[in-house]
Amino acid sequence: MTVRVDLNLSLDGIVMPADPTPENPMGEDWGRLVAPYAATKTVRERVMHDTSGEGTTGVDDRYAAAYFEGVGAEIMGAGMFGLHAFPDDPDWRGWWGEEPPFGYPILVLTHRERPPLEFANGTRFEFLVATPEGALERAQGLAGGADVRVGGGASTVSAFLAAGLVDRLHVAITPIVLARGVRLWDDLRELERDYTVSSEIAESGVIHVTFER
Amino acid sequence: MTVRVDLNLSLDGIVMPADPTPENPMGEDWGRLVAPYAATKTVRERVMHDTSGEGTTGVDDRYAAAYFEGVGAEIMGAGMFGLHAFPDDPDWRGWWGEEPPFGYPILVLTHRERPPLEFANGTRFEFLVATPEGALERAQGLAGGADVRVGGGASTVSAFLAAGLVDRLHVAITPIVLARGVRLWDDLRELERDYTVSSEIAESGVIHVTFER
């Protein structure tokens, strides 16, 4: 019943690049930030539905595979689901098309309730007005003993980390300097005090840092 | 004739912790930031004049030893020398006592010239009103074919990096989150484009990242 967070960061700690637009919801730098992750065999199969069998199989892929293992429910912020980009569209169903790469229930934290959304592959979005603690209790109920992921975005993850609710934080640091966007660490002074921190370098140059309780 | 920079950073890119005071010129977090570096055999011998032979001898010590190898001159900002903490003290001779751990000429960039300072071990501080390019030309003349270090502080290093004057940047990232202080990367967007970036994890948990041309 671990509560887990996995994020891609730039070397300067940017978790959400600048200048998101409806057409380019993660900002122009997103592609470079997640390129090593997107190149893995696991992500190509699981997220991009690429059946070619291609993709990297090293350290990055090991983390990508672990990302999809053992999660029973997820919590995400309204912005990550897309409610800030499309606030007035009652038909918005998320960024992921009709086969979202989850397969489990997802709680979307919002300020205004909406009816839940169901997909054929077991993904179910439920919209919730709740504190982090309240959302976590509900997610743990839905996860049936499996792990809960806090998926993002930046402010949602930061709130859960600051509240001490996260058991394991894994950041995949791409060695690029973005200098523009939302930084993860600003409200997390001395986060390391509650965790054991370990690191590993992937073949791609990505630095994987794990905070584990 | 490489132009080199070596810095200690927190995981969130803080190079100069908050709240410096004359009594604690590097801020209260400095000790934690540089603890793995200060624990090396090389730094204990070279900086602290510890003759016990104790100290770590792993990856951190290899970088510490390289730090002292092959440098013929150094450039530093006025703040790093201490002129901001003691602006009106004509007798101020730097933080390092009568045996500064340099042994070569150092150019201190300032807005007001002062007479040079000489020490018995070959360290000589010269105060210079100059652009980064001008200071570098003078330092290369003094270095006699050896490398030039840009020592610090944050704004001096950032100016040299932004001007494209640095051949090798090595950052030793201590896996702690400070969240307060001066960040290195803010003016260095896409710095990686001019360099090959490689990384290595030390036994201490420090992440050594090197940008090399």
TrEMBL record, chains A, B:
This is Dihydrofolate reductase. Pfam families: RibD_C (PF01872). InterPro entries: DHFR-like_dom_sf, RibDG_C. Coiled coil: none annotated. Residues 2-187 form the Bacterial bifunctional deaminase-reductase C-terminal domain.
